[in-house]
Write a structure and sequence with these properties.
Layout (H helix, E strand, L loop, with lengths): L1 E5 L3 H11 L1 H24 L30 H7 E4 L12 E7 L2 H8 L11 E7 L2 E7 L6 E6 L6 H6 L6 E2 L15 E2 L2 H7 L4 H18 L5
Antiparallel strand pairs: 1-3, 2-3, 4-5, 5-6, 7-8
Helix pairs in contact: 1-2, 2-6, 2-7, 3-4
Length: 227
């Protein structure tokens, strides 16, 4: 998972700089990194020293878990190391956009802390019945919105596990709406770590990155540094 900046035409500029003016390419890359570094450090600071629930921080490998992937445990050192950034352009996504700068979290435990509760703020919906199936719990959950039942699976024998897990953490931070921004904000922009750090600088980092690219293009085209 990551937080991104999107700038149209930026990849072509970066490719041109790397091919024809490596010094300028290094300079603009260093400038962009200087804007992303404080966000990375701030995001790391939001990760708690200890797991919100004690059992989440305990070792998970055992004879009982050898045949399946257990729930990722939380380790603050791994979680903080997992938060980083890159200024290498990505491959085009399904909409054709290329990401020039990304802040990401490669830690499974850190990513869970970041996003837990996005879909179900109080854990999964009320459980109406349970059956054993394939060694786990088959849960019929009732949707308050549709009034219909659906099937989901979870490993815990505690029907309140989701609620207790989510409410052991800080409330999800909601990235604020930008000025004159219309439409509904996606819950995918909510988070406790990267998205919170990004949201706290919303409207500040992105313009700086864009200006760095504009200045680099001006210098590349004219041979003169922007004023």
């Amino acid at each position: 998972m990551s937080s991104t900046i999107e700038v149209k035409g930026g990849k072509a500029l970066i490719v041109a700089l790397r091919k024809y003016d490596t010094d300028l390419a290094k300079a603009v890359n260093k400038r962009i990194k200087s804007y992303l570094e404080p966000v990375k450090q701030q995001a790391r600071s939001y990760l708690p020293l200890q797991a919100p629930l004690s059992n989440w921080g305990k070792p998970i490998s055992s004879a009982d878990t050898i045949n399946y992937r257990p729930f990722p445990r939380y380790d603050v050192r791994e979680a903080r190391r997992g938060v980083n950034y890159t200024t290498t352009p990505s491959k085009p996504n399904r909409r054709g956009f290329v990401y020039l700068a990304q802040i990401y979290n490669h830690s499974a435990g850190g990513a869970i802390f970041e996003t837990a509760g996005r879909k179900f703020p109080n854990g999964r919906p009320t459980y109406t019945s349970m059956k054993k199936r394939e060694g786990g719990n088959q849960v019929w959950q009732y949707s308050m919105r549709s009034g219909k039942q659906s099937i989901d699976y979870y490993e815990s024998n505690n029907p309140l596990a989701g609620y207790q897990f989510i409410h052991s953490m800080p409330e999800l931070y909601k990235v604020p709406r930008k000025a004159n921004q219309s439409g509904r904000l996606s819950r995918m922009m909510n988070g406790r770590v990267i998205f919170k750090a990004w949201g706290m600088t919303y409207g500040k980092v992105t313009p700086k990155v864009i200006q760095a690219l504009i200045d680099a293009k001006h210098e590349f085209d004219t041979g003169k540094k922007a004023a």
